[in-house]
Specification:
The structure holds 2 protein chains of 2 kinds.
Chain A: E1 2-13, E2 16-27, E3 31-35, H1 42-50, E4 57-62, E5 65-66, E6 77-80, H2 92-102, H3 104-107, H4 111-124, H5 140-152, E7 158-162, H6 170-187, E8 190-195, H7 198-204, E9 207-212, E10 215-220, H8 222-227, H9 232-237, E11 244-247, E12 251-255, E13 261-262, E14 272-284, E15 288-295, E16 303-308, E17 320-326, E18 331-334, E19 340-341, H10 346-349
Parallel strand pairs in A: 3-8, 3-9, 6-7, 7-8
Antiparallel strand pairs in A: 1-2, 1-4, 4-5, 9-10, 11-12, 12-18, 13-17, 14-15, 14-17, 15-16, 18-19
Helix pairs in contact in A: 2-4, 2-5, 4-5
Chain B: H1 14-44, H2 61-67, H3 70-101, H4 108-120, H5 123-133, H6 140-147, H7 169-197, H8 201-209, H9 214-243, H10 246-251, H11 263-273, H12 277-307
Classes of the chains: A alpha+beta, B mainly alpha.
């Protein structure tokens, strides 16, 4: 059974439709990532699940109970904010103990139980030696752990995380991602993670919800969303550099730069589409060469190719080459609404 | 930057612009604060009067005379008492009002505007208003109490038709403190509102998700976080109040007897009305070390709370 059930959820701020009809079921124990560009409504959706924002319409069920009109404290959720929102005037111990004390009456904790729980959680996150420090004496990574400890200490049904890694520097971030995933898996908690960073989303999510303009564009596993995008938005939003999109008669088609390779590398030319490619510029990125150029007949659109460095084919600037894409790697989209069209249906769509 | 690269236009020179921008503030401080202050110190150590303006150094004579004066001692005590009592009420009301005014409700802007009026009105004008409200014979408050049966022949509060707001020892003191609280609460409220709205929304949201109800969020999150700003608000209103003479000058002239005579008024009465400039200066300077110590202590507390 789903632990969180969102049905027909809408939130309008005057004329702005921040969340515009979202249906979503979050399963017990999964790591769900809500991914989208800024302003797509992902944070508003999460704040409504937390109870910090009142929906304009729709229902939210948590653990089978309708919580749409309940305040945050009655929902069994906890949250980690992007800024970590540690209470600056309290030491780490009191920060972590705060939700326990606030919910003491509901959860029936005595003083000793609180101390025990705080210490256990702190040990789990390896911050037990920091309990006497104040937030300002902590590094970014330590602050993040304190915030997670505070969110976990009450053993919530759902842990909501609002871009909690974006304040860490790049090196720490990869590490923190790994630890967060391990931690979530071992504690078997349901996590909802909001981010605009596709690498974070791909790396962390059991499932990814891609949002744009207040609507869900696609839900699926990272692999599924990457390989089988539901529409042009999802196709271009995921992947870096993003998918090349070219126009044809009545439809558009796209292929990823890493699938666009010199024809000589292609072992099955019958199953591939051959394109004449004019190379304008080549960037050496170490593991890859990133090639900027134009496909013959589509000179209005800069097209990228990502050639692995172990491919020794020489690519000269201002040279013309034959490049190929596997037919299965080409995705077709409706020219009007951007929706995906299966290749076999293409003839009918035209 | 090399010397040759110095800008040609004088306003491009940082020194010129710096001096230009600082001059008005410096002039203000030197002429309207520094000069009178130094003059008061000079007067305090001299025998200057309105009739004899020669400055003859007399040492601590004025201060000794003032300190041995029973009236001064009572005035000093009254000033401290009025200031402390009113600060308690100002802080309580300002906190409550600041919390109300930072919530969302219809008509908030109008309510804020009305509320700020006591502070925006010139003191003397506002005090004349209160003089009428608290009038011995025609006080509208007395009239209302009379109509509702609290005053009059069978009145609950008094058999008289009036309470004599400014004429009895107890009521005159209560009235003065009340008016001071009425006048100073808006400023403290505005300062506290600024403090409350500077608390990051994330922190308040976090407290809500963590399960804190209104009182816990208020006592454990909001108030501790605005403590430094509260100290500043307190300092402002304490210093203003300690040196104020307008309120009592208009309402009671220090009476009945000496019950509402405060330092500022007494200094004015001795120095200007009585013509003894030297003693007047000495009286007002008595407050200086006290206020200075208080200011230093409070600002230190505030900055310590901030770095935590």
């Amino acid at each position: 059974m789903s632990i969180v059930q969102v049905t027909g959820l809408r939130k309008y701020f005057d004329a702005v439709r921040a969340v515009d009809g979202v249906d979503l079921a979050i399963e017990q124990g999964e790591f769900l990532v809500i991914l989208g560009p800024s302003g797509c409504g992902k944070t508003t959706l999460m704040r409504m699940i937390a109870g910090l924002e009142k929906p304009t319409a729709g229902k939210i069920h948590i653990g089978g109970e309708d919580v749409t009109d309940l305040p945050p404290r009655k929902r069994g959720v906890s949250m980690v904010f992007q800024s970590y929102a540690l209470y600056p005037h309290m030491n780490v111990f009191n920060n972590i103990a705060f939700p326990l004390r606030a919910q003491r009456r509901e959860l029936k904790f005595d003083k000793r139980a609180i101390r025990e729980k705080v210490e256990n959680t702190a040990r789990l996150l390896e911050i037990d030696m920091l309990l006497d420090r104040r937030p300002r004496q902590l590094s970014g990574g330590q602050r993040q752990r304190v915030a997670i400890a505070r969110a976990m200490v009450t053993k919530p049904a759902v842990l909501l995380l609002d871009e909690p890694l974006s304040n860490l520097d790049a090196k720490l971030r990869a590490n923190a991602r790994d630890e967060l995933k391990d931690f979530q898996r071992s504690s078997d908690i349901t996590a909802v993670f909001v981010t605009h960073d596709q690498i974070e989303a791909m790396g962390l999510g059991d499932r990814i919800v891609v949002m744009s303009e207040g609507k869900i564009q696609q839900i699926g596993s990272p692999q599924h969303i990457y390989d089988d995008p539901a529409n042009e938005f999802v196709a271009t939003f995921l992947g870096s550099p993003s998918m090349n999109i070219l126009s044809s008669d009545g439809f558009r088609f796209g292929f990823r730069p890493e699938h666009f390779l010199p024809k000589t590398l292609n072992d099955n030319p019958d199953n591939a589409r051959i394109l004449q490619y004019y190379v304008k510029r080549v960037e050496y990125l170490g593991s890859d060469r990133l090639v900027y150029g134009y496909v013959h007949g589509h000179e209005d659109k800069l097209t990228l190719a990502k050639v692995p460095s172990n491919v020794r084919v020489s690519l000269d600037i201002e040279g013309d080459y034959e490049f190929a894409v596997h037919n299965s790697d080409i995705k077709y989209f409706d020219a009007v609404n951007g929706r995906r069209i299966e290749q076999q249906n293409l003839a009918r769509a035209l | 930057m090399s010397r040759r690269a110095l800008p040609a236009f004088p306003f491009d020179n940082r020194r010129v612009v710096g001096i230009l921008f600082l001059t008005p503030a410096l002039l203000y401080i030197l002429l309207l604060v520094g000069f009178p202050f130094l003059l008061a110190i000079a007067f305090g150590f001299s025998d200057v009067t309105v009739g004899d303006t020669d400055l003859n150094f007399v040492g601590l004579q004025n201060y000794m005379a003032v300190w041995e004066n029973d009236v001064f001692r009572q005035v000093f005590e009254t000033t401290i008492r009025f200031t402390l009592i009113s600060q308690v009420f100002i802080l309580i009301f300002a906190n409550i009002l600041a919390i109300i005014f930072t919530q969302d409700f219809t008509g908030k802007w109008f309510a804020r505007f009305i509320f700020i009026l006591p502070w925006a009105t010139p003191v003397s004008l506002a005090m004349i208003g209160w003089l009428w409200m608290l009038d011995t014979k025609y006080s509208p408050i007395d009239y209302l109490l009379l109509q509702t049966g609290f005053l009059g022949p069978d009145g609950i509060l008094s058999n008289n038709r009036n309470l004599f707001w400014l004429a009895t020892p107890d009521l005159s003191q209560i009235s003065v403190i009340f008016v001071q609280v009425w006048r100073m609460t808006p400023l403290a409220t505005v300062i506290l509102m600024a403090g409350l709205s500077s608390i990051p929304t994330d922190i308040l949201d976090q407290a809500e998700v963590d399960g804190a109800r209104f009182m816990r969020a208020l006592l454990q999150i909001k108030l501790p976080l605005i403590l430094p700003i509260m100290v500043i608000a307190l300092l402002f209103s304490m210093i203003t109040m300690f040196g104020d003479m307008t309120v009592v000058y208009v309402l009671t002239r220090g009476g009945p007897v000496d019950y509402t005579r405060v330092l500022g008024l007494y200094s004015f009465q001795v120095g200007i009305e009585g013509g003894n400039l030297a003693q007047g200066a000495a009286i007002s300077l008595f407050a200086f070390p006290l206020l200075l110590a208080m200011a230093i202590f409070m600002l230190r507390t505030a900055s310590r709370a901030e770095v935590q």
